[in-house]
Input
Amino acid sequence: MRGAARIGLLVTALLEDEWNKGASYRPAALAALSAMEKDLAPMGAIVCPGLVESLDQADRARKAFADAAVDIILVMELSYTQGVIPLRVLLETDTPLLVWNTQLIDSIPPRADWGTILINSGVTGIPELTSALLRAGRPFSFMSGAFSDPDCRAALASHVQAAATRAALRRLRIAIVGHSYKWMTDLMVDQFSVLERLGVSIDYIEEGELADAVGDKLPDDKMDAFLTSLRSRASVEDMEPSMLRLSASYALGVTRVAKQHGVDGVAFYEQGLLLNPGVGITGALGMCSLFSDGIPCTSEGDILTLILM
Output
């Protein structure tokens, strides 16, 4: 789940067709795109399929974004582009979409040459694109401002962070041992709603499976190594030796089971484990071990707090 957000950068331009003869400005447009890509790099991992001018290039861009599993698609137009070209990319994916109505310079100089005007004329195509997105029912976010506008950069950072969080949730897999604490309305969860609204998958670790793992006879050297490490980090002299070893068995067992299930977090119904003759204790040391391995935990079967963690 860690790592930089993946940003699909879709930059379009109409430079050359049967009516428009602007191919001579392509080097300048490509240089502008390269500078934009470099400038946005601190925001995350930029996936840029190049300047998109045609339907074929749009198809390649769509595939590039899909292959990279981008978290968000950022759309800008260097110059006016017929709406169908970016739509070929945007209508066949549910990836969050941010349309930026922007240009590279804050204003067009009164005596600007045609190249400057052309490569800063994308705002003329944005109304067509956004109108089509609305007609198609394709959700998108929108912002307007010059490319260097600090308010736009702050908004972009917020959108990227939100999209990365959404993507992380869709990759998230958590487990529950037992169930949530009875009759607590703040812990009641419709697991289908969790999947539908957040994209989080919920696995089950049965109490019997965990009890078997706790009861497994571990080699003495592995148990001794764990206890030696524990004593170097915590004061355990006042614990009864049998309880210390049971706690260690629990910690090693629950860590093994969690990793076997490949989960990112575990919600425990501790009371059920305390009453289970194969466990017989609460799992404080086991939870500490999971936390130290980067696997957060909650008690009372609290799934929602676990997702937040």
